[in-house]
Structures are given as C-alpha cells and as structure tokens.
C-alpha cells in the first residue's frame, strides 16, 4: 500500500497564515515537528494498536499536532515514558479496545432525556450483537481536537468503524455521530483535515 503524501501541508499552512482570511483558531497554532519512526513505533506498541494509515502518515510527514481544524490537533507526547495526547480526553489504555458502534447513538443516560428524531429511524440505532457488556462508549476513540463547548472530534482507531471521524456531542445530549462527506461516504482523517485546508 502506498503511503499517503502529506508533504504539501506545511507550504499550504504557510500560505493560509499569510492570507487575509483566517481558517479557524487552529491556524494560529504552529504545526509541531513530525514523529520519528522510532517514536511512532513506540507509541503504537504502548497503545496496543496501529493507528489508521492516513493519520499515522500525517504524524510522520506533516507534524504531530498543532495547526488544524477547530482549536488545533492535540499532539502526542511522551510523559514519564508513556505516550498520551496532550490536552485530549483520550485514554491511551482504551485505544486497542474496539469502538463497537457503526451508527450514531446517544448513550443510555442521555437517551432517557431525549426523544428520537422522527423520520430518522436508524440515527441512534444498531448496536452490534457482539458489543461487550463492559464496553465504554469512548473505547477505541482518539480525541483529535476540541470544537469548543465540550464538543470533540474523534478518530476511531479500532473496531468496525476504524479510520472514521466521529463527533462527540454528548455534552449537548446529541451523543456520538459519524461524520460524512458530501457524497454520503464516511469521513476519514484525510477528508477531515484536507477539507479544513480547502476552506
């Protein structure tokens, strides 16, 4: 498989920063240096799962975090010998556990307070039959950035929705929702980040 090329990101960010229009607050954060191959290997060994290919290529070629959508990308950091994502609610020890959902849902404690939308029968539905009884809703989710007002953009790193961007709107009672492209396909890290670069 050919690795995704992110070599154009730094020049494009420089051009955006010099323009009259501002593309989100995340543009004001510098794009931090990329991870080395050894750092990425150590990170993935510690979390127990390979990151989605486009995100890991971004980390190796473009940068570990900083400039990006919303308030910018949370950077992975080694703290006391362990890898974590600075500023992120990601729990590295849960990333290898599968995020078992395939459709948007409101966790049970929110569902009781919010009726289903009429005309969208499967918006919150379809939990796979093999969902572990002790599954936590954030298992397998890497929190990429803060959208403000306790809303978050996440990347699914394990489970049937691996590689997809989901939004955590639980603070608003809206639950977790998969993001889609204009053609209806599920959004990947590449779709999400490059969509921001094109704004």
UniProtKB/TrEMBL annotation:
InterPro entries: Knr4/Smi1-like_dom (IPR018958), Knr4/Smi1-like_sf (IPR037883). Residues 34-195 form the Knr4/Smi1-like domain. SMART domains: SMI1_KNR4. This is SMI1/KNR4 family protein. The lineage of its organism: Bacteria, Bacillati, Actinomycetota, Actinomycetes, Micromonosporales.
């Amino acid at each position: 498989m050919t690795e995704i090329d992110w070599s154009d990101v730094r020049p494009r960010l420089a051009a955006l920063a010099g323009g009259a229009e501002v593309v989100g607050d995340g543009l004001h954060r510098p794009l931090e240096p990329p991870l080395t191959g050894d750092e990425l290997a150590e990170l993935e060994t510690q979390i127990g799962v390979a990151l989605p290919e486009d995100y890991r290529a971004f980390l190796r070629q473009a940068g570990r975090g900083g400039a990006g959508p919303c308030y910018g990308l949370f950077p992975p950091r080694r703290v006391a010998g362990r890898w974590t994502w600075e500023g992120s609610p990601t729990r590295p020890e849960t990333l290898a556990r599968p995020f078992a959902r395939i459709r948007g849902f409101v966790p049970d404690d929110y569902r009781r307070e919010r009726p289903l939308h009429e005309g969208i029968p499967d918006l919150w539905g379809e939990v796979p039959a093999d969902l572990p009884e002790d599954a936590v809703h954030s298992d397998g989710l890497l929190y990429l950035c803060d959208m403000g007002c306790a809303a978050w953009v996440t990347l699914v790193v394990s489970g049937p929705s691996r590689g997809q961007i989901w939004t955590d709107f639980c603070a608003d009672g809206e639950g977790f929702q998969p993001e889609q492209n204009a053609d209806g396909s599920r959004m990947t890290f590449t779709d999400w980040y490059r969509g921001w670069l094109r704004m």
